[in-house]
Amino acid sequence: MTDITSNTTIDKPAEELWRQLLFWGIAFGLIGRLLLNNNVLDLFINYTSSGGSQLGKIHPASYLLLASGAGVVLSFRIGLTADEARIARALFVLLGAIVALLFWMVANGHATAAGYLVDTYLVAAVTGIAILAFPPHWRMLLGDVVLVILLASAMLGVVEAVMHFRLLPYPYAESTFRPTGLSPHPLALGLLSATAIGFVAATRWPTAWKIGVTLIFAVGTAAAGARIATLGAAAAIALIIALQSWPSQPRPIRLRLRSLAFVVGALMLPVVILGLFSFGFLGRFQGGLVDASSLARVDIYQVFHFFSWHDILFGTDIDKVDRIVNDQLDLEYIESSLIIFIFQFGLVATVFFVAVLATLTRALVRNAGPAVVIATLIFVVVALSNNTLSSKSPTVLSLIVLVLAFRRPSRGRQPGRVRQ
What we know:
mainly alpha, 2 domains, two-stranded antiparallel sheet, 17 helices, 2 strands, disordered N terminus, disordered C terminus
């Protein structure tokens, strides 16, 4: 048995080939999950709409990710560092929590629209566990693949915003045009673009590339009309500049470089804002942060008045909640993942699920680089401002892959002791 840097013990060439095939299975699964969004799939199968086969409610790429991830977990003995072990445990807990929630919802007859638990969380957990079996440079390759696709999505979003034309289908009617890029919704485009900024800073790309790609992601976020995400993108850039270390330079030079970066940024900011306004990318800020859209995220909490404590504590039919939101509150959507969790799982199970997610987030960022921590916090804040976390999307999957790809390199490895 030979211990190699991948954390995996390989004793046969055939096993190495098998590991490479599983890696490419995960890579192609990620590509398919990011490129084939919900609206495209709905053209061919009843992916998000009612009716159709239950198998069609799970993204085709999810099957590839689950199969490849299970193959990795069942085939290899994985040795982990202390930080990686914490992440693996948190991912296994998430996996168990999803299975438990699915059984709970089926037992209570509340399993309607629960497919996102598999597509968004279970797939992300299995994929994350599998990625821990790969060497650091393989993980970074997966992270680079995700960033390149997100970059293409942001660039497409900018072009769509300028041309007022979407390349991919978008079934929702909106009073103001907002691009989607390769994402299923403008808010998803904004969330992923803002989140990507921190991870770009954590890559090993040339500095000039990092600056250019960061600007594209920032403009893409603004073009998406996602206000919270746009503020998050601006905060991410400011924090990354403030925390930039320049370790190869003496301390006085580092201070001057940081000051120079802030001065240049301050001088460029008015020009950038003026340019974004001239293209209409910041049009949603003209009315401020408080409008009908933002108020809908507050008004939705009035829905509790229409349900008993039993419904709140143990969950109820989400279709019934949808009807009351539409008819009584005159709101088109439930713009809150927390509301959806409470009425699907019940308050008690929701507290448990949120605690599991919080534990996973803490494990992911513990001892990670500052840019990764910033990106993760931006993701959490922006995602909680809408219903992203309770919808079928590759956002959670993307976050986990990017964190595992661009965390600080491990300083030491523990020998594999258990088959996970």
